[in-house]
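Field reference: sequence -> structure
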Amino acid sequence: MMELQNPTRSRTFQRWRKQVDNDRKRKRSEKDDGKKDWKRNKFITVEEQFKAIGSSNMYNDTSTEANYEWGSVISPVVLSSRDEQRTLKSLKTLSAMKIAENQNLLSSSMLKSSSWQVWKLVWEYISLWRRDSFQTFELFASNFSKEAQFMCHPFVTNQVLAKKDMILKSSLPNETRHRVERVFGNIRFSNFVTTMNSLTFDNMVMLEINKPMKYDELIHLTNLTNLMALKIGRLTTIPDLVLDRWCTCIKAGKWKNLQVLSLPLESQGALCKLQKIAASCKLLYIEVTGKTIVNIQRDWKDLDLINWTVTNDRAMENLPWGIKAQTIMKKYKITNHTKLPSPSTILLDFHVVNHTYIGKFKDLESEYDQLWSLRGLTGFSQAIVLNDKAVPEITATAIRPGSVQHSGAGTKKPTIVKKLQVRNLKSFFNM
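Structure field:
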């Protein structure tokens, strides 16, 4: 009888066993090397390791910060067709509801395939069910913003309480072209600016920032093309180097639509720089905020108070930034200087809050509610307004018929054209 071979003695098994042992030794060695490297590193967490990059204030590597996709964030408490009343609905309504439930799959080519009358119901259900992220809004606004019935916030009353209150407080009555957005503080401003500049519909941006801003972030703001009103809270210090860069950028043609500005300035020199640069853009209102009370008209002697007037309009002091900016532009508008939004212009009202978005599922609802509940720090403020006489009027030179104008010193008498007199039919054919 043939004797069975022991499987542990076969050559194939021995080679396999040797390979397994070698793999175990290699993994154990890599693990030990990792522990040694970790002990040599004085930082404990990954976040603290990131802080080592650019230490000693040499440079800031913003790519290592924890950012979030602000454009795709929607309410954590969304609704769907299951929340609708059990009533008989048309096939068009059922189709719109199904598309609204999958709004993240929409594309611009889909919206271009049909008219606004088809997509209007879809947009209303998207807003009704709290699924109107900024990306989805951008998609619809790019295709249908010129439609008279297009609304930035349809069904506001169906939003969560904090968001509903903020939208109603930040918008003028019956204003359908005002989009209110709240953004957490841990966004990448370079991405934000790129997104705003890539919008294809007519828009003007009103931006309020109530978080500490870095130097690079402040410089990135100058690339925001359609910035109409900017407010930076007093958590940020505006150094002279940033103001100099801003002034240089304005002279180069950036911020050509900036008209309302609110900054935490601490010296009259900074305000004087902004006064001088106003002629290079459409700036007509500068607000100074701070912790301490300063009478700029009495204490800041170097200000230009001939072309500018100090205003103390307390009625507008505590207004939301979006309403305040619109009110200022209409109240202090200057012919040939102020640029008011047209009826088809979408006003994009962004408020960046001093709160970090974590994104944990259990905290998402409370975070979203806190996002729309946070308010900026209030404090002392004074403002100056550009006078009408400071902007030269553009007048057209009247040219009389038959006269000729020359740029030289000499003048030429007007040419007189003799009229032909027709006395009879024969003289007419002789002409």
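Note: The chain is about 35% helix and 10% strand.
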